[in-house]
Amino acid sequence: MRPAELNRLTVAEAAARYVELVRARTVTGSLSPSTAEVYARDVATLVDLAGEATVLDDLTGEDVDAILLAFARRPDGRRSPTGPGAGPGGGVGGGVGGGQSPSSQARFRRSISALFKHAALAGWVQVNPMALATVTARERGGLRPQRRALTREQAEGLIVAAQALPGSGAGEGGRRDQRTELRDALIVLLLATVGPRVSELVRANVEDFFTNDGVRYWRIFGKGGRTRDVPLPDDVARVLQEYLARGRQAGGEDKALLLSWRGRRLARGDVQAVIDRVQRRVDPDRRRSVTPHGLRHTTATHLLADAVDMDAVRRVLGHSDLSTLGRYRDELPGELEVAMRTHPLLRRPGPAAGS
After folding, report:
1. 343 an active-site residue?
2. Residue 296 catalytic?
């Protein structure tokens, strides 16, 4: 739920106001004119990459990741494709075609970080999306997306820990109305197996879950006003039913699925704390810190690695274009070796019938 004072500016409107403030600082001497122009140029690039009509508050961490990487791949007019800045392969960080230098990439990230920091203070955004971005700036090597998907062993460890939560909490002390084990289990299972955006998860209402022909579905309200009905795995549906029957806080917000023990709708920032709490129950050998968006990557990566139809994965994640899946498919250790050991052209045919 947006605060009443939120000002839903477009990216272009927010950029114009921010640049005006930046240039005003040159009058007081707190910022040099040349630095102010660098900020202005980077902010103009942000408008170009994000789309001037996009509402600033609608930008997510994954959107910021895409913007940062798109900037890194932009040709740098100051550098010759065959000059000393050109590297092999045309990858991010300077290659054939003159991608942005590592220092330019880091500067651009700092510039838009400053804009979003001001936007959060000014009430233009609810949450600073830079805090949810996973692309990091490195002076050497430029911007790189960190590997986000958990391996199968790590993901299974987290899921097992989540499934054990309801039973493991049965004998613990504390007031019953302050118990959150079932809720925490449901959060982790939904994130790891369905891969919703964290905003979609905290926005979910009880009425969004329904049963059709014995299958439990979640009607997810996604970006751009689009909805999608995603069937829940049986294990997840059972935890959902148990949570609704005895784990959801009574007397809280009528519609919200996920409630704090005080009966208030859970905020996006609370979800990370839940994941971290469940992670502490995972065997250290299978434990790795992960964000809600990292679990979205985990869902996509393992569904695709298991040869699930790409269009089905697209519909689960709520993307309008198959090409977007490329950003969500992370590499898994050993997967190339497995693929080549079972190469389809080298499989021996079975004996012919009647031979």
Report:
1. no
2. yes
